[in-house]
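Issue 218. Parser rejects a valid record. Input:
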Amino acid sequence: MTFVAPLTPEETTEAAAGFVMDHHRESFISAVKQHTQVIESIFASPSERGVRLAVPLFCLERQGTLELLDETHFLERPWSLRDYLDRPVAEPEANEAQAGYGEVALTEKGKVQWKFGRELADQLKLIDVTENWSEARLIDWFDRNIPHPDLSAEETSVFIAHLLGRWQEQGWPLGRLVRERFPLRAIIEQRIQECRQEAKTRAYQEVLFESASGPVVVNPACVFAFDPDRYPARWVCDHSENFRKHYHRQVGELKSDGAEFKCALYLDRLPEVVVWVRNLERQPERSFWLPTSTDRFYPDFVCKLRDGRILVVESKGEIYWSNDDSKEKRRLGELWAERSGGRGVFVMPNGEDFAAIKRTIGPVQLHEHDVVRLVEPVEEDGEIFAAGTRGAIVSVYNEGEVFAVELEGKAGPTVITVSVQQLEVDR
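Output the parser choked on:
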């Protein structure tokens, strides 16, 4: 008999029933067990064994439908450049020519004369370009050459006219503004972008934080699921073989030393963790992220706990733990956990204080009647129950360390005894 794929417990029972002699039946069951163990050793990673790792996301509930929260929800809130007209306007830096170029010419006496770039620039300053130019035409030129799809021409024209007026008060005549219009265009465009970002940050705070309940929820119906077949790491950890619970065989983009590596080892050895993954940065289609006021936050590690909760960990060195970027990420992660309704946990250890992870998780408890599944094959009275087999807890022993679980066996419902490390909640 040749096995081409692992047999389920039901298939093993059905096939064994075809043997007349007891010793043949026992030999067959033993062969299935050995084959299953080989397959488990080959397909060692949780992703290869079909384990699902999914994280609930921030989303907006609109008219009964859920929308994934992203930066468009902050930008779509109305804002106006008129709100920023009272801001100080600095005088533009003069467009000084560099001494790296110049002009070579012959004087009337036939001598070679070299004019350096700075000298030429000083002479150009004396020239005012006003022919065929008016302030209205210059404003229109700026407006047409600065992209602003989220703002009307009327809105930007008022803002540009305001800047030009301030610069003229600072001693820049129209002719000089025309001559310097290209570097001034970059200054105006940057100024508009700064206003846009400030408005986006304000909308971000209003959407996420200003309301206790808020329009934003973390709903299990809106999740990101890690792809079991694709893990586009740009490079892999040299010590990937040291990890037993990583979702994929290799751990991506993790250095072989330092606080992040130590944090990964701690998670891999934590009994409460069933599976974890190194979350890849700048891979929005393949990684879990949360929107910030300026970008996206990709936490370092995403884990699944035995009780079905999702643990998100951001490793942060002590010198960075209290800076503004870390404070924003910590506040955002804690909000995600709070809005998850107990389904998510977030922690940012301070340096190598990894015990903070266990403290934040709290007790991971399984209870009677919980629907669970095996995370590894279990043998009971000669019958093999494969990883992924579902059942229900009927009794709890040793303060939650050992469980009696009822599974569907070859002869009907069967109760087996397993440890907490062999189970996870089936959510």
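Fixed in the parser; the record now loads. The first helix runs from residue 9 to 16.
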